[in-house]
Design a protein that fits this description.
Number of helices: 4
CATH architecture: Sandwich
Radius of gyration: 21 Å
Structural class: alpha+beta
Number of domains: 1
Order of helices and strands: HHEEHEEEEEEHE
Shape: globular
CATH topology: Jelly Rolls
Number of strands: 9
CATH superfamily: Protein of unknown function DUF192
Length: about 170
């Protein structure tokens, strides 16, 4: 056999092996059913609007660096009464992006006393453009895109949840 042919065979074998490793390491997005099979603890959260209406949600709390970094990535869907509440220790400007997030999200930025200070509606799935709180916020609530508008959630609305030290009305 000639050396050129041997190099070609070895290169082809390396390519096949690398391709197999890349596929084995890749992950497919999970849907909300796959996520619900994990041990996810949900907590109640209530939004009280200036219009007097209240809206209840079951939320996952993102309180660790890992849960904050991962957020709602790799999900294809989420029920409209579900969300994720990011709990930070400081009140400051916040920036999020939609990397590996397959569903549109409303990002509701919240002050330390539980008031909505900014809403970014319908963030675009998979978009890596930074989304800013525009004002300092200590918490961020992510809901399905369009829910804030549908429920008339506005800046100034009050959030009730145990982390704010207030009680749910219901």
């Amino acid at each position: 056999m000639n050396i050129g042919f041997m190099r070609l065979v070895v290169a082809a074998m390396v390519l096949v092996m690398f391709s197999g490793c890349a596929q084995a390491g890749s992950s497919k997005p999970k849907n909300d059913t796959a996520q619900s099979k994990q041990d996810v603890k949900l907590e109640k959260l209530e939004i009280v609007g200036a219009d007097g209406n209240t809206h209840m949600f079951d939320v996952e709390l993102a309180t660790t660096p890992h849960t904050m970094a991962y957020g709602l990535m790799d999900r294809y869907s989420m029920p409209d009464d579900r969300g994720m509440l990011f709990v930070f220790t400081e009140n400051k400007l916040r920036s999020f992006w939609m990397r590996n997030t397959y569903i549109s999200l409303d990002m509701i930025f919240i002050s330390p006393d539980g008031k909505v200070v900014h809403i970014h509606p319908e963030a675009i799935p998979l978009d890596e453009t930074l989304i800013s709180s525009q004002v300092p916020a200590q918490y961020v609530l992510e809901l399905n895109g369009g829910v804030a508008q549908k429920l008339n959630i506005q800046v100034g609305d009050k959030i009730n949840q145990r982390i704010f030290g207030n009680k749910l009305a219901h």
